[in-house]
Each structure stands twice: as C-alpha cells, then as structure tokens.
Amino acid sequence: MVTLEEDKSGYINNMFARIAKSYDFLNLMMTLNMHKLWKKQAIDAASVNIPYVKKAKILDLCTGTGDMAFEWSKKLQVSKVMAIDSCIPMLERAERRQIKSKKSNSDKITFMEADALALPFPDNHFDAVTVGFGLRNVNDLDLALAEIYRVLKPEGYIASLDLGHPESGMVESFHKGVFLKLMPLLGQIFAGDKAAYKYLIDSLETWPKQKDLSQMFWDKGFTRSYYKNIFLGTIAIVVAQK
Ligand SMILES: C[S@@+](CC[C@H](N)C(=O)[O-])C[C@H]1O[C@@H](n2cnc3c(N)ncnc32)[C@H](O)[C@@H]1O
Hints:
By secondary structure, the protein is α/β, with parallel strands linked by helices. The protein contains eight helices and seven strands. It has a single domain (4-241), classed as 3-Layer(aba) Sandwich (Rossmann fold). The protein has helices spanning 4-31, 34-46, 67-73, 88-100, 141-151, 169-191, 194-206, 210-220, and strands at 56-61, 78-85, 109-113, 126-132, 152-163, 224-230, 235-241. Bound molecules: S-adenosylmethionine. The site of S-adenosylmethionine (SAM) has 20 residues, from α1, α3 and β2.
C-alpha cells in the first residue's frame, strides 16, 4: 500500500527529476546568482570549529547539483564531503560537474543517493552539516532534525539555508503578493514547468518561521541555535550547535 508520506516524497522526487536540467540556470535567474553568496554564508556559519579539526568530515544534505559540496571541498581542513540527495537526476548533474571540474579539491566529494530521513552514517560522525533549500522538502522535518543530531559530532554545527518568512507584515505582503507570484512564471518560461515552481510557494505555507525552526533545534537537544535573516527575512540561515 502506498501511504500519503510515500506519495509526498515520490511527488518531490519526480518534481526535482523533471527540473534537474534547468535547476542551476533557474537558481541563477531567480536570485541573480546571489544564492552562491548565501550558500557561502551558511557554510561559514557551520565552519566555526573547522579550523581546529585536522581532517574534517562534512555532510551536505539534499545536495542537489552540489553547490555547497563544491564550496566545502575548497577548504583545506576538509578531507571528505559526503553529499547526499534522494533524486538521481540531480545527483547525475552534480557528478557531471565533478568530472568536468579541473579542481582536484572536488575529488574529496562523494555524491550518494540517500534519504535525509534515514542517513546511512554512524552516530557522531560529521564535524559539520549543511543543507540548502532542502529541509522544506522533506516529509518529516522532526525526523530530519533527529537524524542531523545523531550524525553530528558533539559541538559540531549545522546550518540550514532556506526560504524564510519576513518579520514585517508589509514585506511579507509584497513578497507573497508580487515576488513569489513571479516564480511559477519564470519556472514556465525557463524550465517549462510551472507546477514545480508553484510548489516552491505552496511549500512555504507549512514551512516554519525561522525563529520556530531555530526553536525546533533547541527542542531536539542542540546546545545553541540562532538564525540570521537575509533580504528582510525572505531568506534565512538557521544555525545550531550540538
Ligand atoms: C531545492 S533543491 C536544493 C539543492 C541544493 N542544496 C541547492 O541549494 O541548490 C532540494 C533538494 O532536496 C532533495 N531532497 C528532497 N527530499 C529529500 C530527502 N528526503 N532526502 C534527500 N534529499 C532530498 C531534492 O531531491 C532536491 O535535490
């Protein structure tokens, strides 16, 4: 029997498989390439302990086409980046980038098909974890946070970069009423897939506010958590330390 949960993850998987080819271009268009800067900021936030670790092991969840994994691989102290995703066409794009890359750093990355809700790694294994625009898509956020907690080493940091909820009502009205309405249109024009980019907006309905997501990390047992708003809270980085 197919359960509702399986239905949702199947839907998400199909959607990312459909848009895998145009995903990087759409990111560039929709954010004017600023997503790269936000990803670096999230990595910096998760890197607090990395200068003191000799051979750091990093986990990038929901890696997609691998932007954050490639960024992590540039750090000298990083010896291994496990970059996991549940969507094979997205991982294929990532692997193609790795093959084309002239930088030997990228050899530190292993791309792997895996579910963020059942990570195939031992407890207390990674020095840092990142996830970019990924937690919003998993069908059990609570379980995803529990898995992150489990695989992180004590004192390790996790940073989640994702859409946020603006704290000002005026900004929120403009963001929802004008900016987000453009997304399905851009999705239609550049990826030929309006539905996938309408999902992006719909997913915000159930996605917690950044302060609530930060509280969820505290509730899971993390010893500290905070968030940083970008663009008036339309984007947010939520950070937690085990
Ligand atoms: C919006 S993309 C983000 C990709 C990349 N992190 C970035 O920031 O560009 C979300 C990714 O999450 C992956 N994903 C969704 N649910 C997942 C799960 N349960 N386990 C692993 N990956 C998942 C999707 O396949 C997709 O590649």
